[in-house]
Amino acid sequence: MYSTKRISLLTLLITALAFSACSQKPTPVAQGNQTQTLLVGNAAEPEELDPHLTTGVTELKIELALFEGLTTQHPQTLAPQPGVAESWAISDDGRTYTFHLRPDARWSNGDPVTAKDFVFSYKRILSPNLGAPYASMLYLIANAELYNLGELKDFNEVGIKAIDSHTLEIKLEQPTPYFLSMLGHMAFYPVHPPTILKYGAIDARGTGWTRPSKITSNGPFMLKDWIVGDCITVIKNPQYHKAAQVKLEEIRFYPMENMHTEERAFRAGQLHITETFPGDKLEAYRKENSPYLQIHPYLGIEFYWFNMNRPPFHDVRVRQALALAINRKALVENVAKRGQLAAYSMTPPDIGGYTSENHLQESVTEAQRLLAEAGYPNGEGFPKVELTFNTSVDRRKIAEAVQAMWKENLNINVSLLNQEWKYFLTTRNEGNYDICRGGWIGDYVDPYTFLELFESSCTNNQGGWSNGEYDLLMEKASRTTDQQKRFEVMQKAESIALEGMPVIPVFYFNSASLVQTSVHGWYPNLLNIYPYQYIWLEENAS
């Protein structure tokens, strides 16, 4: 059951290590291999498990076990696979999708999953009062944006319709080639209408319906326990339509913000998979030719948001100066040290054939000139500002390095504020910051998923930057079906964003984690998505 009990993971680890020294008892990993219990490091305590209100990877990793949309992702290629929908048809003009739901799709309480459940769920995430951060992902559906903005009151006019209990029709504003891939995203997950309405209105927040004693889900697993600061446990859902094919019986997610603690837990046999590991340990693992080390490309970018509502960041020259005064190569090689690539554009390279033609040109001299032009020669008169980031050893080191670069190169003093994940998200979402750490993982393999962040209407545009020309270009890109022409339009848009500098790109992500050799069905992919229904545990398996 849910409790506020806090247990020191470090204390537990030390105790476990001491105990193991005088005992022959198998490690939790060895025991998990026998019982099909997967032990996962998960970076931080989740903010929430409501798929319509969360944006973080921390939450997604758990929601991926609990919920299933119309489609899922192939574990290796990420190609859309049948989920709740066992099949679909697409109209000749590419705008109308007809989904045929599985007759055996069930909620964890045994209720059938119906087309009306999806209509309810999409209405919920688009409800203006809910304030869903990912509502804009549904804007490609006819009239969805107008409804979300409150300009359209009748949801029946939105392009979502239940033809019958197992047939769902979705009409788009324009053809969208990647629409099926998007449907596997948490924004498109269904929620159980009776459960939502039992604890509040359709657009109510914070009702607690995702707690173990309340939640009803439809994925391969269901929530058993949530002990804050200790562990979130999910168990196999017998109502899942492919339950017979799911080999894992249980998954335990441990919130470990300290990557050194997490790495020690892995070596002690406490974890099957880590979220990450300390950058200063990379070379040691590489020299050992460790079978546990997993490093591969990850479609994401680390950046810093500027708050456009706070001076001096309304001045583009200030934003440009701070961006140009950072030595990104030094950051990734000497501070982060996990093989990341320095970021000089708003999009990672080679996203489905798209690579930005526009790049930042770091220059301390130009940064100093711009800052002086903005009225702060040699940093004189620059106001007190604060850089906010979430708890993490690496993120603290990076923030400290950036702080030092700004002091050395621009003679400005920037203070640092470190916050735990939940508080950090609240700070960022409420715009209560000067400069704030940000990051974005592609929701699908297309540059649009990164560039839409800076549209004026995007609910995830947390810095408040707005440019009319940029918005028009992005709208044109969304309506262009020819891929080459789409890319040309987005190149123009990205050049505007790079000039306007709504964020400071820092580095492109890669996935760097430790995985026990007993874990099977865990395949590296660009989105770092690992559908748990394909994973199993077995020692010495080929």
Notes on the protein architecture:
The chain is built from 17 helices and 18 strands. It has 542 residues and is an alpha+beta fold. It folds into 3 domains: 1-50 and 219-274 and 515-542, D-Maltodextrin-Binding Protein, domain 2, CATH 3.40.190.10; 68-207, Dipeptide-binding Protein, Domain 1 (Dipeptide-binding Protein, domain 1, Alpha-Beta Complex), CATH 3.90.76.10; 299-510, Dipeptide-binding Protein, Domain 3 (Dipeptide-binding Protein, domain 3, Roll), CATH 3.10.105. Strands 12-16-11-15-13-14 form a 6-stranded mixed β-sheet. The protein has a 4-stranded mixed β-sheet with strand order 1-10-9-8. The radius of gyration is 24 Å and the shape is globular. Residues 1-15 and 17-22 have low confidence and may be disordered.
How many separate structural domains? 3
Annotated CATH topology of the largest domain: Dipeptide-binding Protein, domain 3
Spatial order of the strands forming the largest sheet: 12-16-11-15-13-14
Number of helices: 17
Mean of pLDDT? 92
Say how many strands there are: 18
| Full CATH superfamily name of the largest domain | Dipeptide-binding Protein, Domain 3
Main β sheet profile: 6 strands, mixed
The CATH architecture of the largest domain would be: Roll
Judging from the principal axes of the Cα atoms, what is the shape?
Answer: globular
What structural class results from the helix and strand content? alpha+beta
> Which percent range fits the helix content?
25-40%
What's the gyration radius in Å?
A: 24 Å
Distance between the termini: 38 Å
